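W.,

You were right to be curious about this one. When I first looked at the sequence I had no strong expectations either way, so I just let the prediction run and decided to look at it fresh. Below is the sequence, 469 residues in total, followed by the output.
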Amino acid sequence: MHRRRGLELLGSARLIRVLQVSRPARTPVLVFAKPPRPGVAKTRLAPALGSKGAAALATALFEDTWSRVSSLRWARPVLVTPEPDAAEWGAARAACRWPQGEGDLGERLARAFARALAGKAAGAIAVGTDSPGVPAALLEAARDALERSDAVLGPCDDGGFYLLALRRCPPGLLEDLPWSADSTFGRTRERLLERGLSVEILPGWFDVDVPADLVRLQQRIERGAVRAPATSRLLGRLCPRAPRISVVIPALDEAGRIESALRTLAADGWHEILVVDGGSRDETAALARSVPGVRVLEAPRGRARQMNAGARCATGDVLLFLHADVGLPPEARDSVARALADPEVVAGAFRTWTVPDGRRSWIAPLLHLADIRSRYTRRPYGDQAIFVRAAVFERVGGYPEMPLMEDFELSRRLAREGEIRVVPARVRVSGRRFLTRPVYYFLLVNFLPILYALGVPVERLARAYGDPR
C-alpha cells in the first residue's frame, strides 16, 4: 500500500513537472519610465500645466499604462527605470524592476531586451508611458505578430514609435539611431530590415509631449476612443474644458411659446440650437427661424424621431434634449460642464419645478407633486432636460423610436455605459397637462416605469398618457 502511494506521488510530481515545462512563458512587457518628479518629467508640458502639473500627468500616464499591461494575463510587466527604488513607483510597488543603465535610448532598450530574451521568453515588448490608453488590442496584436515576425513596430504620428517588440536583439541593433526625431520610426524600421529581421507594423497611435497634444487627448477621451481613467480624471482637474453643447428641441404646434423661449436660450451662448419641427400646423417653424442663430430642421412627428434627427445634425460634444415647454435655469451650462468633468459620468439631467404656465388655479400648489420623481429617480424623463455625451448617444443607438417611454429606455441604455447624474439645478416645466387632471397624471407619471417594466405595451401606456406630442 505504501509502495502504491509512493508511485502515485511520484506520478503526480512528474505530471506537475510536465505541465510546468509545457506552460508557455509569459511575455515580458518592458515599461520604460522615469520617476514622475517636478522639473524632470514631461518638461515640455510645464508651460501649460506647471512643473507639478506635468509631474502629476506623468504619474497618471504611468498608472494607466501599468494598469493596462498588468491586466493582460499573458504579460509579465517589468518596470525599466533609471531609479528602481524611487518612492514614486506606488502603482508598481510589487513589480519586477530593472535599472535602465547608462547611454542613449537605443543602448537602454538593447540592454533591457537582452536581459528579457535571455530567459525562456520567445519575445519581449517595450512600451513607454507617453502614449495614453494604448488599447489592449494593440498589445495583443504585437504579441501575435511576434509569433511570425522577428520585430514589431507601433508608429506614432509624431515620427516616433509607441511600441517595439523583438524576438532577437543582435549586438548593435539599436546603436546610433535618431531618438525623439520625426525620422525615428523610419530609421528604426530601416535598421531592423538591414540586420535581416522580418518586421511587422501595427496601426498607429499617438504620444502626449507638447501642450497641443492635450487638446487632442481630451477630445479622444470624450469620444470614448481612449480609455485612460487616471489621466482622464487628472485632465478634468488640470484642464477643464467647457464642452460644446448642442441644444436639440423637438417641437409641434408650439407657436404660443417657441419664439420667446428660443430668444432666451440664444442669449446664453450655447454652441448651437436646433429646433426639429414634427409637422406643426401653426407658425412654430416660421417663428423659430426668425430667431438669429437657431437652425430649424424637419422630421416625422414623434419626439424620439425628431430628437434623433436633431442629434444627427448636431456638431457639439454634448447633446442636451429640451422639450419646448421646459425652461433651463441660468446656471444650466455650468451644471452640465461640472457633471461631465467627471469621466465616469456619461449623461445627466436636471430636477424639475412644475409651474402653472400662466394659468391661475387653486390646485397650482399641487403641481409640485410632479417634481418628487426627479429627486429620487436614476432614470430621468425627457422633461428633466437630459444631456449626454454625443459619442455615447451614438454608441447606444440614440432614442428608441417609441410612442412613449423613449426617454426611460434611453436612460436604461446609458446606465450600462456609465453614471447618469441628476444635478441639483431645476428646470421649469409647464404644468398644463397636470392642471387638467392632477392626481391622475401624478400617479401615472410615477407608476409608468413600473408598468413598463411589468410588460404593459407601450402603445397602451401612450393612450393612457394622452397625446405625448
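Here's what jumped out at me. The chain has two domains: 25-223, 242-465. And, maybe more interesting for your project: Residues 1-10, 12-22 have pLDDT under 50 and may be disordered.

Coffee later to discuss?

I.
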